[in-house]
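Repro:
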Amino acid sequence: MKRLLLENAQKNNTQSVTSAWSTLQSSRSFLQAIQSQVKASEIATEGISFEYENGSGRSTFDVLQSRSNLISAKINLAEAERNYLLSQYRVLKSVGLLNSDYLNLK
């Protein structure tokens, strides 16, 4: 009976670690995609602002819309960074390393 409980606990732990690792990899990829989105939005906003300032056919609305897109991208980046950090902690928790000694907390 105890052996079955131990095997069940090991399977559950393996599943937990696998799930946490998969989530970590996924959140890392998503974070990288959002970082690229922010860079692209910054470049676009800079270009649209430059065109507006030089009278090259861009309107105030174009500038505001590009800045709004940049703000949205930065908000998405903050959320992706948060999710990535949380997924790192979930991996540590699943392998038993989420403690003050390992994290060098005082």
